[in-house]
Amino acid sequence: MFTLWSLVEASLLFLNAVCVLSEERFLSKYGWGISAQVQGFGEPASTKAQLLLLVRSIRTVTKIPLIFLNIVAIFFKLLLG
């Protein structure tokens, strides 16, 4: 059954996956590395560059809160099954 907890758990797993993703090891194989964001001044950013910036932003902003959210999710799983 699809509940609110399963939606929260799925978003938590997605955030964990984004934070664990390594640019040097995984993304650079497919051309999504650090050097993929080269653009001139005043030029609009490409979709690829915007997605890379989004991944970096998510990784920066959610690193510490994600630790506490994972601890809470583990306790809920242990207590409620």
UniProtKB/TrEMBL annotation:
Which one GO biological process term can you cite for this protein?
A: endoplasmic reticulum to Golgi vesicle-mediated transport
Major location (coarse): membrane
One GO term describing the cellular component = Golgi membrane
Record-annotated membrane-spanning stretches: 61-80
Give its localization.
Membrane
Q: Which Pfam families does the protein's record reference?
A: Yos1 (PF08571)
Which key words tag this protein in UniProt?
Membrane, Protein transport, Signal, Transmembrane, Transmembrane helix, Transport
Q: Which residues form the signal peptide?
A: 1-22
- Give the family, as the similarity comment puts it: Belongs to the YOS1 family.
Report the function annotation for this chain. Answer: Regulator of endoplasmic reticulum secretion that acts as a key determinant of brain size. Required for secretion of extracellular matrix proteins. Required for correct brain development by depositing sufficient extracellular matrix proteins for tissue integrity and the proliferation of neural progenitors. Acts as a regulator of the unfolded protein response (UPR).
**Know the name of this protein?**
Immediate early response 3-interacting protein 1
